[in-house]
User: What shape does this take?
Amino acid sequence: MPDPITLIVEVLVAGAKLVGEEVVSQAVIDAWNGLKKLIGSKYESNPNVGASLQILGTKPDSTDIQEAVEKALREAGVDYDEEIRAKTNELRIRLEQENLMPRIVYQAKVEGSGSVAQGKGAIAAGAGGIAVGGNVHGNVTTGEKSGQS
Assistant: This one.
């Protein structure tokens, strides 16, 4: 899965390309406008964020503009904002549901005795390993204690 900023930019670009087209539902338009508005309101004190988002809306195909948006969002620390990440995911899902954006696909190759975990919340342990999740408190003992058989 792409890092949060790359995903935000990809979703913003996809939305910007589609807004105004007849094939887009009002739900997609509302989600796109909501994400832009949220980012703009939270980072209005950062002129680079606002300016780059405004230009992106008019030139979404420009890789220079996409890179400027990505740089501005990274510098502003947008990738740590859970509310923006949630809104981005909401728009991504809407775009995927309407087949307007490719679904995220995971692919991996394992050689030897390793393991792979992919996707949100995935956990893996290699050969002979133990995967522990959740809130673990206290001691965790694996295998036999020394001196016992």
The mean pLDDT is 82. The CA atoms of residues 10 and 34 lie 16 Å apart. DSSP finds five helices and no strands in the chain.
